[in-house]
Amino acid sequence: MEVNLVQRDRQDEEEFVLLDLSSVSGELDIPANAPYVLSGLDTLNPVLIIDGKLKLIGEYEETMGTCLVFTEEDGNPVVHEEVGPSEANLFSGKCIIDPNQTPSKQVKPVAQLQKILKFRLATDADIQCLTAEQTK
Fold this sequence. Notes:
Blueprint: E1 3-10, E2 13-20, H1 22-25, E3 36-39, E4 47-50, E5 54-74, E6 79-81, E7 95-97, E8 105-121, H2 124-135
Parallel strand pairs: 2-8
Antiparallel strand pairs: 1-2, 3-4, 4-5, 5-8, 6-7
């Protein structure tokens, strides 16, 4: 699932919305750094245009309970320091990192969500409706 967070301001109130592209990610090849335009966040069906070519229609879904978004960062590796006066200790005072240790991650909360914006491919009927709404 590919996600982006959009922060919306309403006077002094912030609202975070999760952009859920999971229903279209298997059908489409969306480049990682493709430019996009997200419009109509204050409507029932926001529109997401990716790379000027792909047009997606969104629909809000209220979250059940508390929905938290986390970020994942690389953690520091565990370092073993050899200590002691042992004559056999060739690594006295040296730090050793275990090469077999899996890299650790740190997870930090980013935001709390109230809504998820699920997207689907726009059909010809969707495009005609959007065009008609824009000309009004």
